[in-house]
Structures are given as C-alpha cells and as structure tokens.
Amino acid sequence: MKKMFLLLTIFFTFLGILAGCGTEKSSGDVSKKVVIGYFPNINHVPAMVAKDKGFYEKELGDGTKVEYKTFPDGSSFMTALKTGDIDAGLVGPGPAMNNYMTGADVKIIGGGSTGGTVVLASKESGVKSVEDFAGKSFITPAVGCTHDVQVETFLGEHGIESQRIGGTMKHVTGNPAQYANMLKSGKVDIAVAPEPWAAVIQQETGANIIIDHDEISFGETLPASVLVASGKSVKENPDTIQKIVDAHKEATSFIEENPEEAKEITIKDVKEVTGQELSKEVVDQAWERIGFTYKVDSDAVQAFADSSYELKFLKEKPEFTDLIDKQFID
Questions:
Q1: Which domain of life is it from (predicted)?
Q2: Side-chain-facing half-sphere of 307: CA atoms under 13 Å
Q3: Of 174, 178, 91, 186, nearest to 139 (Cα)?
C-alpha cells in the first residue's frame, strides 16, 4: 500500500512538473515581436520620435517587444518587408509603388511627411540652372526611388533626360549621407538630396540650390514618406496594424506640438545610425522644407505613379485602388 502511495505521489508530482513546463512555454509563445523600419533622414522623423518615446510599445502593449531597423534606400527596405524581416515602417512612395506593380504584397496604411527633396550642384560643376544639366552627372538614393522620379519628372518638363531613357545625363546612386563628399571630390556634379542631407551639403560644400523643395515636381503634394505594411498583416492582424498606426499618429502630433524636442531626437538618432552629428543649424534649415502628416493624398500618389510609368520605371500603367488602405487613419 505504501509502495502504491509512493508511486502515485511521484506520478502526480511528475504531472505537476509537466504542467509547470507547459505554462512557461505558453507564456513564451504569448510574447510578440514587432520590427519597424525607417531611414535616417528627416522625412522619417515620426519613426525616430515613436522609437524614442516608446509610442509603439505603449500602443502594442501585452509585453510586445519592438525592434527597429534602418535602411539606406527603398530597395533594401522593401526586400526586408517582403521577407518578413520587418513588419511595418516608413519608406518613400516610389519603392512602395514599384514593388506593388511587380506583385509585392504591400499596403500604404498612412502618410509620413511631405517635401524635403532638394537638388544641389557643386560650385566646380559650373551648373547655375537647369539649362546647364545636359551632359552632367546626378546622384539619387536608388533608380526609380521617390527622389529620382521627382527630379526626372522635373527634367522631362524642361526637355532633359537621363542616359537611361536616351538623354545625356549620367545617373549614379548612393547613400545620401555621402553626397557632400562626392560633390566635393567631383565624383558627381548634382545631388538630389532628401533632408537633412541637403542642408548638410549646403553647410559643408557651399553647393548651390538649383531646384528647391517647393519647385521640384510633386514637392508639396506627394508624401515624401509613407507608412507601409504587408497586405497579409493588414488582413490577418488588423488590430496590430491599427496600434502601429495609432503610435505613428501620436508621434506626428508630438512633432507638431514639440518641434524643438523632436529636433533633438532627430540629431541623436541620426548620429546613432550614421555616425554623423547634425548641427542644430542644419536641422533647423531642413525642418523648414518638411511637413509631417499621417494623411495620404491618393490623387498625388496616382499622379506620381503615372509619371513613373511615363519615365519607364514601371512597365505597366499603374492603378492604385488596392495599394492605399485608409481604414486605419480615417
């Protein structure tokens, strides 16, 4: 009898251990991770502010771990979104559109900013106006990126084209943080720069602004950055997406209400990511060329896409009825 009692005791103790292990595993399964992507430029300040203030963690709750990844261009960002390395984030509308047109599962779920694209020429280039562009070299972050489409649309209106479509201008790509050095060294003549790098170029090289942020095509209407997620996430996890958008909206409101603190956050974040410390003067100058909003102008996005098609960045005429999903911001 005693032996039977001992066996039963061991048996139920073992069950208790199993149950305890099961609880720990279950608890581990409940924890979630969300990865947010963005670029280290002023068009992406909402992500920097949300990161610094913990807005994503606050909205997502339930112990959700939030990680951040930064990218030098839209191509690498979109690759990360497609592979699931990031869940959502800010990117230029150009890469979002281009990838959507090639079958990528992407949705624009909010706006990020407007403006901030400036075209500058080095003093040594001899470029004083758009009429001097023929035969010169220009740099953008990537082929077909937002800034590339903006400048090539503007140039087309002045009868100038890149070598890619039969013109004389040589196009190269590179990291905007390196544009100042490339202009100074003579590697390129003209830089199409997102802020704050346009202001950095002005301060470090004395380059001339040839096309300002409010003169370049779509400069004041097009979202310079958009908040995106995968269509699968929008469909399967709408509550999570809504919380991400709510955090983004909170960050946008913070920027409007606390511009000086938002600038400090920007300077700190850009230094952490790029190793370059922006001066307050540079950030103040760049800030004047940018607007922050979580709204999306669908008509401006479609007009921009039509121009991308005409410039042969897109193989098919675009229709973006399903690309933009406003349910989370309306």
A1: Bacteria
A2: 25
A3: 174
Q: Output the DSSP codes for 213-238.
A: TTTSTTTTTSEEEEEEEEHHHHHH-H
| Element containing residue 152 per DSSP (H, E) | helix 146-156
Phi and psi for 286 in degrees, rounded to 5? -65, -35
What does the domain layout of the chain look like in residue ranges? Answer: 32-114+223-310, 117-211
117-211 belongs to which homologous superfamily? Answer: Periplasmic binding protein-like II (3.40.190.10)
Give this prediction's pTM.
0.80
Provide the residue count of the chain.
330
Q: So what's the pLDDT on residue 3?
A: 45
Query: What class is the 32-114+223-310 domain?
Result: alpha beta
What are the per-10-residue average pLDDT scores of the chain (330 residues)?
43 39 36 92 96 97 94 94 97 91 95 95 96 97 92 96 96 94 96 93 95 94 94 96 98 98 97 93 94 93 92 89 92
- Per-residue tokens: 246: 């709510």
| Coil/strand/helix, residue 141 | coil
Asked, colleague to colleague, whether 32-114+223-310 and 117-211 share their fold, the answer is yes
Residues 6+ apart with CB under 8 A from 191: 119, 120, 121, 138, 139, 176, 179, 182, 183, 197, 198, 201, 207
